Amino acid sequence: MFSDLAGQLRIREQQGLRRVRQIVDSPQASHVTADGRSYLAFSSNDYLGLANHPALIQAVCEGMQRYGVGAGASHLVNGHSAAHHRFEEAAAAFTGFPQALLFSTGYMANTGVVTALAGRDDAVFSDKLNHASLNDAALLSRAKFIRYPHLNLVVLEKRLAATQARRRLIISDAVFSMEGDIAPIARLIALCERYNALLLLDDAHGFGVLGRQGRGSLHAAEERAVHSPRVVYMATLGKAAGVSGAFVAAQPDIIETLIQSARSYIYTTATPPALSHALLTSLRLIEQDEWRREALAQHIVQLKQGLQSLPWKLLPSDTPIQPLLIGGSAEAVRISQGLRERGILVPAIRPPTVPQGAARLRISLSAAHQPQDIARLTDALHELAAQS
Q1: CATH number of the domain that 103 lies in?
Q2: Is residue 170 a contact partner of residue 201, using CB atoms and an 8 Å limit?
Q3: To the nearest whole number, what is the mean pLDDT of the chain?
Q4: How far apart, in Å, are the Cα atoms of 246 and each of 100, 113, 154, 160, 226?
Q5: Looking at the domain assignment, is residue 316 inside a domain?
Q6: Helix and strand totals (H; E) in the chain
Q7: Which of 121, 161, 244, 246 is the 20 to 30 A CA-CA neighbour of 105?
């Protein structure tokens, strides 16, 4: 067994697909210290620059003093704190839903929703480029798993029309994590209405960034999207919100179904209450600090202008996720390493995360970056392109 594992690892190494963890020994910020060296970082999902915000640090400390460290039990036993409950109420109000439910991670939230709402006699329809957590959830549900080409709603409609499933669930990223593009939410909801389906929308990369006051991708879509009872909305809290966890917002019957049936909610210890206490401050900062989203928009424009003449294609995206398509895995690793040698962190994303031949640099922008940071990155990429 061990020789077989070693052989598989050697193959992964030879194909340029071996992943290596780096040790970050500073707070998340636009500049970090990793493996003992200082870097300009474009590798974090801390889109609003809140992960090291003094107000959040203070709120966590206050929460620790008030609630202690651990929750001590699952939500349904004795671990559902007043801090958890207050955050759920605030998250529902902020996103415009009747109720919300807190999960430990976005992965667990997606797993809980799909497996609670779909089973053997049902069908789950998934965009080809959805996050792994959505795909894994669909497989775990034992429903029929039907995938459609990325953003191709013509094919999706044909497959919806052909199914005889008892219950239909469409699952989709709102902002696709490796592409940076945005799902056509209003059109997806229209299909749900036409074919009596539900829509699970994973807004991990849109919450806090898109929509009025950062209220998410639904609020950036048509008005009907915000109020559709067919939407089950999931947002993570460790990216733009700067803390940890995730929540699902939906109609009361759906939330109650999750409380009763979502195994990844029922059978796990609740998150530390102090984090939920801090998340109330995070919601306030997201709502009030419009300058953070304005800074992100300016950074996106500057980056696109600075990379226009490169031999590599910047994929179309109006979000903080800016993928630079390289092609081969070895070449993507070479460029990423070249940036690292210049003190800049940008991860090389390779198969199986992206398709073969579509390796890329995933440039993540933050409101904490400065214009000179963007200029330093674009200059370095032009230097590396000249050496190719």
Answers
A1: 3.40.640.10
A2: no
A3: 95
A4: 10, 12, 31, 29, 19
A5: yes
A6: 15, 14
A7: 121
Q: Of 152, 99, 373, 112, give the one whose Cα is nearest residue 267.
A: 112
Give the number of domains in the chain.
2
167-213 pLDDT tens trace? 999 999 999 999 999 999 999 999 999 999 999 999 999 999 999 99
Taking only the tens place, the pLDDT of each residue in 144-158 is 999 999 999 999 999
> 262, 288, 314: which is the final residue of a domain?
288
Local structure of 59: helix, strand or coil: helix
User: How does DSSP classify residue 13?
Assistant: H
Q: Which amino acid is at 88?
A: E
Whether residue 15 lies inside any domain: the answer is no
Q: What is the pLDDT of residues 122-132, one digit of tens each?
A: 999 999 999 99
C-alpha span between 211 and 214 (Å, rounded): 5
25 and 162 assigned to the same domain: no
Asked whether the bond before 229 is cis by omega within 30 degrees of 0, the reply is: no
Q: Do 178 and 312 fall into the same domain?
A: no
**What is the C-alpha to C-alpha distance for residues 279 and 123, in angstroms, rounded to an integer?**
35
Identify whether the C-beta of residue 324 lies closer than 8 Å to the C-beta of residue 361.
yes
CA geometry: angle at 158 spanning 154 and 163, to 5°?
A: 145
Residue with tokens 């203070």: 58
Based on the fold, state whether residues 64 and 133 are members of the same structural domain.
yes
* Residues identified as active-site: 177, 205, 239
Does 4 map to a domain? no
Determine the Cα–Cα distance for residues 189 and 148; give it in Å rounded to an integer. 16
Range of the domain at 26: 21-48+290-387
Average pLDDT over residues 347-370: 94
Rounded to whole angstroms, how far apart are CA atoms 282 and 103?
A: 17
